[in-house]
Design a protein that fits this description.
With 746 residues, the protein is of the alpha+beta class. The chain has 26 helices and 11 strands. Strands 6, 7, 8, 9 and 10 form a 5-stranded antiparallel beta sheet that branches. Helix 1 packs across helix 12, helix 10 runs parallel beside helix 23 and helix 15 packs across helix 24.
């Protein structure tokens, strides 16, 4: 592996014009393909194999005119000062609103609250349901503007009008979090490299990688069914790994140059060593993202696959375009103080004295000093790290998962106002009705019996009359629980109904009774994620473990890498629970309302953070492995790894933390939660697990850390990530100078 990549790096450096041109053509080609491709399909959500999805598909088949997949809005109207909404003046205003809504574009039907009996017991509040021909993702500004105009006209009469449902536009505007992350990344890279050109290269290559990946997703959108939002995860991960991979290769190139090698040879060795680590780190990320297919939710599968493809592009760019760009600026990527020594220009007397003092002192950098401290106090560092993360993980035992709904939105949104008005006037369960489908030869009669049986159950507020289809082989009932959609009792109610349908079917002659609706779908979605979490974790960690065994030729190193990751993710989940579920420090992070943690959070954290954590593990430990293979003692290998890898791993982690932390400034609590969770997980994993626990374990294990059974050593292929075979070639030392005149530890 190292030999092949070394040759590839030298070729890219030598033929830099050709490589750069090829990537420009690739970028231009995919952009052109994306521009000419058909519009991507609208977002669709499905959960194959669940009862909710089965019932939803049945509704689409048996009630095509109802538009089961069409958007809907529930408009809530309230009179001022407790006036009777059935009075002549108020009734005329409400009827006018219904008329305006009926005339709105793409509207199929609007229920009249007076005819449907959708009026509260105190006669102050009513609601109307608006049905659309098309899905919510297909509604344009024209449809949204028509709704707004109708609402404003009714409000001018003195009515309070609010609305919820997927037809209501949600302001998804971002507050510049991406720009903040890129700006912080540029600053960190500039501080790390001390060169504008070196700092700009990772950003440039990452943006090119994102351009190729996102344009490719757009170009293939209609063919593979990739919606516009599929690229969200791909953009975030592509930016993260794109910067990381270029950062490590450029850092290794600078190290090779300051050790006296010619630029072309330095580029080859950088790609052969750091590039090998990039390839295997990229594979771990790809495994984690592609493994989302285990969840069996098409939306997550497509997002994971698209992001995995973008990571593959980032790896290819790192091992080809990065060395090509280094060929255009082989010396300017160094610090100004280092360039004179490399170009052969004589050092000033002051520079010579500084270099002589540096050589005499052999001052270690911060990474070396920290590694040496950990080697002297491994037990104390290990205990503090493990116990600290363990304490942070304790709140995770109280983790409550849920999906975002209108009841969790900000109090000043129209969706939340409509939700609260319905709860106050019609009961908490009114916001989470269940849709019951009844299939039978005489659906109307069977559904009537089903409705009576369901109405007698505890926790049921009301059951609507059955509505059969034209063929009278399927009927629909709406059941309103007595508890809210986010209440645990509602979840138990759904399970109780499903468990008891067998007896009801026998008693009523129904062929099949299914429960669906938004509340039921949320419950099934959470259950699907819960069921898939352990298989997904086993698949991702298991495959990555095998890959790391191959990379490090050790059993204990991959084992501690996996266990450390689990510890950091648990601690991050604990922090999320404390802030977003319990409300600790809610004002500090701008959390408007505490509530359940989003159901997708644990599995997304595992996928994203595992990939980044293995990046840091591979980059840091591969340098230790390299030193160990070249004859260093175990302790010396740890110090060497931190000497050359500690600073760049820290820079990479700071960049990722900054990018993710930018999203904490957003107004949307869900975006805040994602940004906080990922930033916290990277913080714990990079600086506590990789920088403290890992070297402490190496210090305690000594040579045992690199133990591998002989039989396994014989059958494993030698991928040579550490570049041991590269030493068979005579190193090319630049101009024959002593390499120690330049401080390579900086």
């Amino acid at each position: 592996m190292a030999t092949f990549l070394c040759k590839l790096g030298r070729f890219a450096f030598r033929r830099r014009g050709l490589i750069a041109l090829l990537w420009v053509l690739v970028l231009g080609g995919v952009i052109a393909a994306a521009a000419s491709a058909p519009a991507p399909p609208a977002d669709t959500f499905s959960m194959p194999g669940t009862e909710s999805q089965k019932a939803f598909d049945l509704l689409k088949e048996k009630f095509p005119a109802a538009g089961a997949d069409g958007a809907s809005a529930r408009v809530v109207i309230r009179t001022p000062g407790g006036q009777d909404i059935s009075g002549p003046e108020r009734k005329a205003a409400v009827s006018g609103l219904v008329s305006d809504l009926t005339k709105a574009p793409e509207v199929v039907s609007v229920t009249d609250p007076y005819q449907a009996g959708a009026i509260s017991k105190d006669s102050t509040t009513a609601y109307a349901v608006v049905k659309y021909k098309v899905a919510a993702t297909e509604l344009t500004d024209k449809e949204h503007e028509a709704l707004t105009q109708a609402f404003d006209k009714a409000r001018d009469t003195g009515l309070t009008v609010e609305a919820g449902g997927d037809a209501i536009k949600i302001d998804a505007a971002m507050g510049g979090a991406e720009g903040i992350g890129i700006l912080v990344s540029a600053i960190v890279l500039l501080i790390t490299f001390g060169s504008m050109i070196a700092a700009g290269m990772p950003l440039l290559t990452a943006l090119i990688g994102i351009g190729v990946g996102i344009s490719g997703i757009t170009a293939l959108g209609s063919t593979l069914g990739l919606s516009a939002t599929t690229s969200t995860l791909a953009m975030m991960i592509g930016l993260a790994v794109g910067i990381d991979y270029a950062l490590f290769i450029i850092s290794r190139y600078r190290s090779e140059i300051t050790e006296g090698r010619e630029p072309q040879e330095a580029a080859g060795r950088a790609v052969g060593t750091a590039g090998s680590a990039v390839v295997f780190a990229g594979l771990t990320v790809i495994i984690a993202l592609a493994g989302l297919a285990v969840v069996n939710i098409p939306m997550l599968t497509k997002m994971g696959t698209a992001a995995a493809g973008t990571v593959a592009v980032a790896v290819l760019i790192a091992v080809t375009l990065v060395p090509a760009l280094l060929g255009f600026a082989p010396v300017k990527v160094l610090r100004r103080a280092d360039r004179k020594a490399v170009t052969g220009k004589p050092l000033s007397a002051r520079q010579q004295r500084k270099a002589a003092k540096m050589v005499a002192r052999k001052k270690p950098n911060l990474g070396m000093r920290w590694a040496s401290y950990v080697l002297r106090h491994p037990v104390a560092v290990l205990l503090v790290g493990v116990l600290g993360l363990g304490a942070m993980a304790l709140p995770a035992a109280s983790l409550e998962l849920g999906l975002p709904g209108e009841g969790t939105m900000a109090a000043d949104t129209t969706q939340r106002k409509a939700y609260d008005m319905l709860s106050e006037s019609f009961g908490p369960g009114f916001n989470g009705p269940l849709t019951i489908t009844v299939s039978a030869g005489d659906a109307s009669t069977a559904a009537g019996g089903v409705g009576k049986a369901l109405a007698e159950l505890d926790g049921v507020a009301s059951v609507s009359p059955a509505v059969p289809n034209v063929a009278n082989d399927t009927a629909i009932l709406n059941l309103v629980p007595s508890t809210g959609p986010a209440d645990h009792a509602t979840e138990e109610q759904v399970r109780a109904i499903r468990d008891g349908v067998g007896a009801i079917e026998t008693a009523t002659g129904a062929d099949e009774i299914l429960v669906t609706g938004q509340t039921a779908m949320f419950i099934d979605f959470s259950q699907t994620l819960d069921d898939a979490l352990l298989p997904y974790l086993a698949l991702v960690v298991g495959l990555a473990f095998l890959l790391l065994v191959l990379v490090f030729r050790s059993v204990l190193v991959p084992l501690k890498a996996a266990l450390g990751f689990l510890l950091s993710v648990s601690a991050a989940l604990g922090a999320v629970v404390a802030v977003f579920q319990w409300g600790w420090l809610a004002d500090v992070f701008g959390v408007k309302e505490a509530g359940p943690v989003m159901s997708t959070m644990p599995i997304f954290m595992i996928g994203v953070v595992f990939g980044l954590a293995m990046d840091y593990e591979v980059f840091l430990v591969s340098r230790m492995r390299e030193a160990y293979v070249h004859g260093a003692r175990p302790g010396e290998a740890v110090v060497t790894g931190f000497r050359y890898g500690g600073r760049v791993v820290s820079a990479a982690a700071i960049i990722m933390i900054s990018v993710f932390s930018g999203f904490i400034t957003e107004q949307n609590d869900l975006i805040k939660m994602i940004g906080f969770a990922l930033a916290t997980a990277v913080l714990f994993d990079a600086f506590v697990v990789r920088m403290a626990i890992v070297p402490a374990l190496f210090a305690l294990l000594g040579k045992s850390a690199w133990w591998l059974p002989k039989w396994l050593d014989r059958i494993l292929p030698d991928v040579d990530v550490e570049g041991a075979k590269l030493d068979a070639r005579a190193p090319a030392v630049h101009r024959g100078r002593e390499p120690h005149l330049v401080d390579s530890s900086r």
